[in-house]
Amino acid sequence: MPWAGLPKPKASSDEALKHLAEPGARCTALAVQLEALIDEDSAAYDLVVGAFRMPKGTDEEKAARTAGIQRALTAATEAPLKVMRACSGALGLVDVVGRFGNQNASSDVAVARALLSAGLSGARENVEINLGTLKDDTYVARIREESTALMQR
Question: How many domains is the chain built from?
Answer without folding.
Answer: 1
